Amino acid sequence: xxxxxxxxxxxxxRANAGKTTILQRVxxxxxxxxxxxGEGNExxxxxxxGTLSRGHHDITHExxxxxxxxxVFHDSCGFEAGSTEQFDQMRGFVVKHAATKxxxxxxxxxxxxIPMTDYHRTVTAAEQKFFNECDTGHVPVMVLLTKVxxxxxxxVRELLDEGLKIVEAKERAVEKQGKLLExxxxxxxxxxxxxxxPPKGYVTLEKMHxxxxxxxxxxxxxxxxxxxEGLQMLLISTQQSSILLCIEYAVRxxxxxxxxxxxxxxxxxxxxxxxxSLLVWFPxxxxxx
Length: 289
Description:
Layout lengths: L6 E7 L5 H8 L7 E3 L8 H9 L8 E3 L6 E5 L8 H16 L9 E7 L9 H9 L7 E6 L4 H11 L4 H27 L8 E4 L11 H9 L4 H10 L4 H23 L5 H9 L10
Parallel strand pairs: 1-4, 1-5, 5-6, 6-7
Antiparallel strand pairs: 2-3
Helix pairs in contact: 5-6, 7-8, 8-9, 9-10
């Protein structure tokens, strides 16, 4: 794992799911990402925008933010169209980058975004096809319910339909929004957990359009579905959402284990070794053993 320098994530889902905004929040940026081809050559933004306007999108392109180059993202934009060609391209990319022997080219996690602006069609044929036909192997897939705040207006409308006045409807809207979210999250879980290759986890995201939006839960749950501690360490030390998350993993995964071993085997404390083992969970720490 020491040879893996960057945490690579494939972001999937229909257009207008707020994917780019989520990546900006994860990387603490308001800028557009730099885009590179598979060989590491930067692609001019004019060329990229031109291909997007013509409906073309290259899943192999790497999206990197200057604010946190430790993350590399790939976007499978347009998959919701249901095109067999697009699906086969996406599946080929997943298979290749899940099993490649080049460790820095591997995809480590997949975020599948479903926007709550489309709550009435949360699980479409596209989602069913992916989770029934795409075996991602050891790469965990998480479902991200995005734009959850869109349910607020739905909540207000439903309360008005129940006969409430506008003032009272607004007062009770947040509570109603929570119930709607719980309802649709349960629906999504019920549908996707029945699939052949179900998601490993679910996260709800709201107010991602705000620069102060917190991505701690997203980072925490993504780390929890990682099957290898080395990948957990890479993710936790790369994310900049929460220093408390770094502390939690350093204590839970390293300090507690070292203390138990020391007590059990009556080992002398090796301060340097403990220092090294703890610091690797933190960002921007140059440590040497």
